[in-house]
Design goal:
Elements lengths: L2 H11 L5 E3 L7 H10 L6 E3 L14 H4 L3 E4 L13 H8 L11 E5 L5 H9 L4 E5 L12 E5 L4 E6 L5 E6 L4 H16 L6 H5 L10
Parallel strand pairs: 1-2, 3-4, 4-5
Antiparallel strand pairs: 6-7, 7-8
Helix pairs in contact: 1-6
């Protein structure tokens, strides 16, 4: 559901800082604890991709990781054979919010399955819940206008703080990457950091993670 792509995109947008992140897509429980140990190096930011293995009913590493910002990129049927229903998948994914402080931020794809449920569960843990989406009828905190699919890239408009439309570009023709770009931009906005359009445009290093 775009976890690796979103993580890599966030890291790219934070390229001016010292960032700790997963190696490859190693996102299981052991990898989460390993990355927590590496926090002793005192990075500026840690961008940690977390699988359902790491937050399932056996143990929830989010409680110990204590993220300042937690993102759910989507709910799908990739793990359906392991769990009773897609709703059960949604329930487990919301466990990531249990590590948030009262001042933490939850970021949620409003166009995914069970979006209302995800938002409600996040609001049980924090008052800072942000949503994103590309459906025109979505009432979200961040959306896009005029998505244009070109040869080898996508262009879209996002409204800035001055209520002006700015053009953004990503070098892919994947609709899913538009969602991942919105999640990543919301992270930078939550951190009150500028969005480096060049980093967004030139993030070709994660093309193999297209969904």
């Amino acid at each position: 559901m775009g976890k690796s792509s979103t993580r890599k995109l966030i890291t790219s947008l934070l390229s001016d800082f010292n960032v700790l992140e997963n190696r490859g897509n190693n996102n299981v429980r052991a990898a989460i604890y390993s990355n927590m140990l590496k926090l002793i190096k005192n990075p500026d930011f840690a961008v940690i991709e977390t699988s359902m293995n790491a937050i399932n009913y056996l143990e929830n590493t989010a409680i110990y990781l204590k993220p300042d910002i937690a993102i759910i990129t989507g709910i799908g049927e990739a793990h359906f054979s392991t769990f009773k229903s897609v709703k059960d998948i949604a329930k487990i994914k919301t466990r990531i919010f249990e590590g948030l402080s009262d001042n933490g931020t939850a970021i949620i794809n409003n166009d995914t399955l069970y979006a209302d449920y995800l938002v409600n569960k996040a609001q049980e843990k924090t008052n800072n819940v942000l949503t994103y989406g590309i459906n025109k009828d979505s009432k979200v905190d961040l959306s896009v206008d005029n998505i244009r699919y070109n040869k080898g890239n996508i262009e879209f408009l996002i409204e800035n703080q001055n209520n002006e439309k700015e053009v953004y570009q990503i070098n892919t023709i994947s609709k899913g990457m538009v969602y991942n770009a919105l999640a990543s931009i919301l992270v930078l906005k939550s951190l009150n950091l500028p969005i480096k359009k060049k980093s967004l445009k030139n993030s070709n290093h994660f093309l193999k993670y297209y969904l």
